[in-house]
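seq:
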Amino acid sequence: MSELIKSFSDYAWGLPLVILLIGGGLYLLLLSRFLPFRFLGHAIQVLRGKYDDPNDPGQISHFKALTTALSSTIGMGNIAGVAVAISVGGPGAMFWMWVSAIVGMSTKFFTCTLAVMYRGKDSAGELQGGPMYFITEGLGKSWKPLAVMFSLFGMIGALPVVNVNQLTQAINDIVLIPNGVEVGLKSNLILAFILVVVTSVIILGGLKRISNAASKMVPSMVLLYFVLILFILISNYEVLPKYFVMIFTDAFAAENFKGEPFYGGVLGALILLGIRRGAFSNEAGIGTAPMAHGAAKTNEPIREGLVAMLGPAIDTLVICTLTALAILVTGVWETTTDNGVSLTASAFSDAMPIYGKYLLMVCILIFSVSSLFSYAYYGTKCLSFLIGADKKHFYNYIYILSIILAATTPFSMMLNLIDGVFALMAIPTMLATIIMAPRVVKEIKLYKNRIKLK
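struct:
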């Protein structure tokens, strides 16, 4: 089964998808004349609530929409995903994750603007946003098969299997095994049961409870993680410049690459690895974030697009870079055979021998649990689109069962499954976004005129 899922994931992440994600993102960046970077200051003003109006349509504020989206993207992609990228591709993999994020800012701006421009109503009459709605509302009913494709794969992609798997591995490696507790199926099932209880309490409360939990947890967990990584970097300041330069030099040399060659040989495989891990981390072009941003209280689609584009910058350019540098400066990527979350834990133990791994454990716990809440919301939206809002709660039961499955399954199998499904979610999201991109550019011009008038 593991080999079958790996083959599926590798096939899905072929050259056509890389062209669609990166080529499509570059097209959007050029089409908008680099708007995501020119409007950065304005985006921060919107995020701070300067333009909030409680009478605007939608369910949650700009800030809560961003933190709900970030609570799913800031998670194991930043801790385990970066570790996987470096253990396979060396320092150069981080450079291609940066490329993925810069292009991803443009992609996220367009997808989340469309999510508000073309909101649709579910069977209960509630205003909703997301790729499935902007496909049917923006392109017409004849394009519905594309929306159905996104929703079907979205239900699998929203399962929290990677987060739960890595949280279980972290608890085993950091807390249980060092304290002489025997780990196995029984201990993993106990951990799964605890997670099921915590998750059930939040997700069965709906979007309001999810966004409230996320808006409180995300800023605090980012700050704690940021402080801990800075301590590691300051402790190893003498080698920091060397490894920072290696991110650039190894991006094209690829001498530390340990994976299988791709179309362009070893360099092609390294580029693919960085883009794949970047997409897993910030989810730009995949289509999950538009579901959170589509629920924002606003009647200005461009504003929500600008807030959304901050996601890849915070997620990949800041947090993933910090994780990568911590792994590189401590040297654990060369001295251990650890992978995933265990490699990051080794870096923390190296810099802070007694308490480092326990502080990382706190971050992992908050990262993982907050991600559990957001993904449940995405999955219910997909099911609601397919069979009606009155039946969307059935997804929560599938979701809860998947927590038990993930806690007892190998990491590589879970990562490949979500990688492959993300690739299939990106196809309808990116195709529809590229087709409707000129409409977003038109909306940008109208928005700029409205700002000048005000």
